[in-house]
Amino acid sequence: MVDPDGRIVVLVVEDEASYVDALSIGLSADGFIVEAASTLAEARKLFVTRKPDVVLLDLMLPDGNGTEFCREIVATSSIPVMMVTARSEEVDVVLGLELGAADYITKPYDVEDIRLIVERTLERSAMR
User: Fold this and answer.
1) What is the pLDDT of residues 57-82, one digit of tens each?
2) Is 109 helix (H, G, I), strand (E, B) or coil?
3) Element (DSSP H or E) covering residue 13
């Protein structure tokens, strides 16, 4: 849900503080509101309470694998999920996209690239 100020809410599900910091600083500077969760449990709560416009989802989290959360989101909403992970094997990419992820980005990445991909993904989802 777009924030009352008209800004896009991004839920970042990531347990590595350096990535959270980089995304929070970079995306906030571009006008996005960033909500961060370091566990799946936190992510599920924020997903319900903040109703983000897009989810940036790491796969390897301390309390489980992000693929299950991706399945939940895709099954219950039209909110795009972008997997952002260190897992770069072809089988992982294919699985992520087959689960319904709108995009699959491997670490390391450039925050500006993430911003552009988020914007493009939201534009595509608005056209549906």
Assistant:
1) 999 999 999 999 999 999 999 999 99
2) coil
3) strand 9-13
Separation between Cα atoms, residue 72 and residue 57, nearest integer Å: 12
Cis peptide before 80 (omega within 30 of 0): no
The 10s digit of each residue's pLDDT in 23-56 is 999 999 999 999 999 999 999 999 999 999 999 9
Task: Write out the DSSP string of 53-80.
Answer: SEEEE-SEETTEEHHHHHHHHHHH----
Q: Please indicate, yes or no, whether the overall pTM of this predicted structure exceeds 0.70.
A: yes
Q: Which of 105, 55, 108, 106 is nearest to 77 (CA)?
A: 55
